[in-house]
Specification:
By secondary structure, the protein is mainly α. The chain contains five helices and two strands, in the order βαααααβ. It has one domain: Orthogonal Bundle (434 Repressor (Amino-terminal Domain)), CATH 1.10.260.
Length: 74
């Protein structure tokens, strides 16, 4: 399973820039739909690689800072 660490990246950006960063701002800045971002925050979803690339560019992070693989329980 993949876990998206979007909340953490938003919190880091807010801390660095000392201001509130809304989901709408992220959507407008990256060209990613707000609904897609909301799904990533709330329950995970299938995400295209270009979406992940845009988010990495926006947050200035590496892919492993944005996505974590959690092995399935056997």
């Amino acid at each position: 399973m993949l876990r998206f660490k979007l909340k953490e990246r938003i919190a880091d950006k807010e801390f660095r820039e000392k201001r509130r960063v809304s989901l709408i701002e992220v959507a407008e800045s990256t060209g990613i739909g707000r609904i897609t971002l909301s799904r990533m925050l709330n329950r995970g979803t299938n995400v295209r690689s270009d979406t992940l690339d845009r988010l990495c560019n926006y947050f200035g992070c590496r892919i492993e800072d944005l996505v974590e693989h959690i092995p399935d329980s056997i």
